[in-house]
Design a protein that fits this description.
Number of strands of chain B: 11
Order of helices and strands of chain A: EEEEEEEEEEEE
Largest sheet of chain B: 7 strands, mixed
Order of helices and strands of chain B: EEEEEEEEEEE
Oligomer: heterodimer
Shape of chain B: globular
Strand content of chain B: over 45%
Number of helices of chain A: 0
Structural class of chain A: mainly beta
Radius of gyration of chain B: 13 Å
Distance between the termini of chain B: 36 Å
Distance between the termini of chain A: 41 Å
Largest sheet of chain A: 6 strands, mixed
Radius of gyration of chain A: 14 Å
């Protein structure tokens, strides 16, 4: 069965600390896609990254980096030198190659960055 | 800029009074989705359109209907809103390709009195 687990419900850090948000997924497909979204208090889901199952290269975008490890079925997200503006709920999502285009969302991690 | 637009951003309705939420997109995407998101929960897919083909989720109540008159617009109709329907409603679009990214609008927050 497909599933996405974000075990951390809420994380609080002090500004400038690094923080890692965990995402563990389950799927029987060999082809699948993983996503991270940010949802600030305004409510819009902002797309951050998409990764397909054949590309295990880690990615860095400014202060954001992602670690994809198929061996542990994890796609973790690290924010370096966190800022107050990073405070949001972050969702990890899985899409399988089923032709339905649907996402399976994790339950989200609320990140609070304190000044 | 290409985008997904939702109107209104906030909607107040009365218990049992029909309400319509709208979504438009300038991305020219084939697929449009409606999600319901309650506080501290992940978005829950209600239905999606692939072009004009409507795909309802099995657990979406009959109270929720949708229309897609053309590629750009999609509407969510709640025929008789109950207190439990108060939520954020998110519209999203994507291309009709495997694993495509969904792009979300800002959402409409619905309050039922």
């Amino acid at each position: 069965a497909q599933k996405v687990t974000q075990a951390q419900t809420e994380i609080s850090v002090v500004e400038k600390e690094d923080v890692t948000l965990d995402c563990v997924y389950e799927t029987r497909d060999t082809t699948y896609y993983l996503f991270w979204y940010k949802q600030p208090p305004s409510g819009e889901l902002v797309f951050l990254i998409r990764r397909n199952s054949f590309d295990e290269q880690n990615e860095i975008s400014g202060r954001y980096s992602w670690n994809f490890q198929k061996s542990t079925s994890s796609f973790n997200f690290t924010i370096t030198a966190s800022q107050v503006v990073d405070s949001a709920v972050y969702f990890c999502a899985l899409s399988e190659a089923t032709g339905t285009y649907k996402y399976i969302f994790g339950t989200g991690t609320r990140l609070k960055v304190l000044a | 800029d290409a985008m997904v637009i939702q109107n209104p951003r906030y909607q107040v309705t009365q218990f049992g009074k029909p309400v319509t939420l709208s979504c438009s997109q300038t991305l020219n995407h084939n697929v449009m989705y409606w999600y319901q998101q309650k506080s501290s929960q992940a978005p829950k897919l209600l239905f999606h359109y692939y072009d004009k083909d409507f795909n309802n989720e099995a657990d979406t109540p009959d109270n929720f209907q949708s229309r897609r008159p053309n590629t750009s617009f999609c509407f969510l109709d709640i025929r008789s809103p109950g207190l439990g329907d108060a939520a954020m409603y998110l519209c999203a679009t994507s291309r009709a390709e495997e694993g495509e990214t969904q792009y979300f609008g800002p959402g409409t927050r619905l309050l039922v009195l």
